[in-house]
UniProtKB/TrEMBL annotation:
This is MOSC domain-containing protein. It comes from the Bacteria. PROSITE patterns: MOSC (PS51340). Residues 30-165 form the MOSC domain. InterPro entries: Benzoxazolinone_Detox_Enz, MoCF_Sase_C, Pyrv_Knase-like_insert_dom_sf. One of its GO terms (molecular function) is pyridoxal phosphate binding. Signal peptide: none annotated.
Amino acid sequence: MTPGTLLAVCRVHELLPTTDSTGVTAIDKRPVVGPVKVHGLGLSGDIQASRKHHGGESKAVYAYSQDDADYWAGELGTDIPPGRFGENLRIAGLPVSEAVIGERWQIGDRTILEVTCPRTPCRNFAQRMEQPGWVKRFAAAGRVGTYLRVVRNGTISAGDPVTVIRRPEHGVTSGDVFRGLSPAQAGLLADAEAAGGLVLSPEIKKVLRTLESRQSRETAPAAQ
């Protein structure tokens, strides 16, 4: 498989005010020059203002593809430079939004990241973009990028190759999760985890619990 390329490594430039309970957002990410260390909670020098919705081990790094950025550049009539969508990694040559859950990427000589779950657009993102109906528009396009956990720490730099070193056979993608899993897809993820070949993130487990609960209600016999 031909590797992709890490076009830019981005981390917080400054905290911006927001109207949510946190009061600030770290969505203003911008490219940095030179090597950046990667650890269990993300990039050295980067932060997430609220780890309730962003960050933590299962959302340590957010990646976005250049193809998807080019799509939005065409739609909006303006460039989408690396970091504009709050991503840590801008990647060319890989279908980031359709990466398989549990897929592993090696970046450079050492760093290994694992695909965990899709990004859910929020009002801070909408505020940053200043586009009418942005959350709905971004969601409808399905080009949401993906979060990753850090499997092996290392150091990364713009220009590093991004190589898929494992792609689980279940085939369920981050984009599938965002669009809404079918019962069959949910079963594939649950089976893969039960077989020991996959560690599902808390976010995916919550989705599976919700689906299971819904199915139980729908199949329960009606009260007499």
